[in-house]
Specification:
- By secondary structure, this protein is α+β, with helices and mostly antiparallel strands.
- The protein folds into 5 domains: 9-97, GIY-YIG endonuclease, CATH 3.40.1440; 113-252, no CATH class; 267-389, Nucleotidyltransferase, domain 5 (2-Layer Sandwich); 397-566, Nucleotidyltransferase, domain 5; 578-629, no CATH class.
- Helix content is 42%, strand content 19%.
- The strands form 4 sheets. Strands 13, 14, 15, 16, 17, 18, 19 and 20 form an 8-stranded mixed β-sheet that branches. Strands 7-10-9-8-11-12 form a 6-stranded mixed β-sheet, sandwiched between helices.
- A hairpin with a 3-residue loop joins strand 8 (267-274) and strand 9.
- The radius of gyration is 31 Å and the shape is globular.
- 33% of the residues are buried.
Length: 630
Amino acid sequence: MNSNVKTDSKNNKFPLLEKAKSLPTTPGCYLMLGKEKQVLYVGKAKNLKNRVSSYFNQSSKSPKTEIMVSKVVNFEIILTGNEAEALVLENNLIKKNTPKYNIRMRDDKSYPYVVVDWSEPYPTLKYLRRVKREGKREIFGPYPTGSNIGEILRLMNKLFGLRDCSLADFKSRKEPCLLYQLKQCTGPCLNLILQDDYQQRLKIALGLFKGKGKQVREYLYQQMLKFADNEEFEAAAFLRDGLDEIEKFISFSPQKNVDLGNETRDLDIIAYHQGDIEIDISFYLMRNGVLLGNKSFHFPIADCNEDIEEEISRFVFQYYANSHDSLPSLIVSSLSLENRQLLEAGLSFLLQEKNIKARVEVRNPGRNFQALYNLSLQQAIEGQRIRITNQASVYLGLNKLKELLSLKERPKRLECFDVAVWQGSAPTAAKILFEEGIALKSGYRHYHLSQREEGNNDFAMLQEALERRLKEQNLPDVFIVDGGKGQLNVFLKVLQKLEVSVPVVALAKEKTKSDFKSKEIISSQERLFIPGRSNPYILGKNRALLTILTQMRDEAHRFSRKLHHKVFDREQHGHWLDAVPGIGAKIKSRILNKMNMNIAELKALTVAEISAHFEISVSLAQALKQALKK
């Protein structure tokens, strides 16, 4: 449902309030729009009229909501059949539009699973990060960081003699592989082991992922003794070393058996802690009766536009909707009954959309899960305490930047620029993007810059890069430039020229020597140059902001030099390639595209290797070889 109603600034948001009062009292989603028709915020409501009207009436609101509403010039709505459908639609709209004022869950890890496909005649233990529950697959996990699950899988396949090859290699093999000779494979590809015996080995191995690690360890220990008795000492030694790794996996601290009586399903325990500044959410993951570990998230209270618990339930839904991990059959949470029911209905609707025949139940901790819930809650409380105590919170850093620049709201999107050039050659620039203190690589950009007659001219090159950037859309909240007052003034000049009002700061390291004659650097401190401020801000005063900005500067260095070295190498190779007889523009381009080595490495290749690597004739390869000698 679209409308062209505009906001009258003299009457504040009155036209939008009148429009909101005309909305239906049914469920749906609403999209708050800015002056460029960009989506500022997406929300869902059980009653659209009441919810949307609340933004534009005179009732008290959080500072974050007040700022967002001040930028709204219009809104749109989409009707849904019920609130659960609205919850699913809201998540899709947030993913599509990435609105600035929504809390967006960032799970930058896809945790690994152990998968066994019993539809294969000789299954093996597979390591997968994205899993579909289909066919005769048996799935274990996810396994959080620290479990070393990839190495454990490779080891288990060898210790139990399971095939370690792809299904295609398995079907095409004509003779046993080297692993069979080393007694690290039982040769199922050539039927050197009965299928029943093979599957029995596999079932014993799976005990490691079902909380039966001690039985698996004992089985392997007995196998080791047999090899030793038969004087097969290499095989026995391999098992001995493998047992050490298995022991480490079994004793991995988060992994332990938990007695839940008759409760044997996969489940997640969710707890949250609301502190003075932030909210921490802790997910404890249990699969097959084994507590695997924890995932934690946090966001500032100031970012909440809705009721705190409603924001948390929305966050939890987005976590499951966007995660590559499979849904558990049971979720335990202390959310209110209404929010638990909505979460359960939304996840059920999500499963139906994906044609997955499964059911997710959401219930409160009760007596059975109280101990685990307390553990998850303690994780959230301690995680926040440690982070705040050590000033490691990204929000502390961004709030400090807000204060230094006198901004109305905390900056979320920061862009950092860096120029790479050596002796005026192959100049390049890089722009990297951090959102909420985390690198967003989809926002990285490289710029090939014009080579200047005067050679190195960092200021002119920086100006060129920025002018090109400002022609693009979706500007950041703050620009960061590597350098001192000179670089800062270049940015300010360009921004003023193009009438762009985005704050900018410059980051530079001040180095202190033991005396003016000495070359030894005894200390250095990062300084932040801010427009209108006579003295730079010493970043060591705020560890969180120091961490964010130095990470951005280092990442910009890395990214700009990556392109610079590639361009520089191509130019250097290009100079001598022009002198090789028989190499025209087309072949030169092919050689440069495949040039992944330096001159010394190239000289070490034979004529045949040069011909094969660059896909050129032997005669051209010989000409190249001759040119390299010169």
